[in-house]
Amino acid sequence: MPCAPLREATHSLVADEHPANQFVQIILRIAPGRSAAEQRAILQTVYDAAEGVARSALDEGRCALRADLIQSDPDFAIHETTLP
Questions:
Q1: pLDDT mean over 18-31
Q2: Distances from the Cα of 15 to the Cαs of 9, 38, 55, in angstroms?
Q3: How far apart are CA 84 and CA 82, in angstroms?
C-alpha cells in the first residue's frame, strides 16, 4: 500500500514533561467508503509497522505508542486543489 512521506515533529512535549518519556501518536485520516473491517485492518497494519520501529523503546520503558483512524466527513470539510 503506497504511503505519503512521513512528517516529523520538530518540537514535542509529553504531558508530564519528563525528558526521558517518549510518545508516538499516529493519526490516519481516510475518506468514507471502507467497511469497519477494512478500517481496522488499515489501522492494525500501520500500528504493527510503527510498533516494529518503536519496539526497542517500548521494551526499555517510558514509551507510549498510539494510532487512531478518523474517517473524514465531506459535509464538514472545505477543500480546494489544483492537483491533476
A1: 88
A2: 16, 32, 21
A3: 6
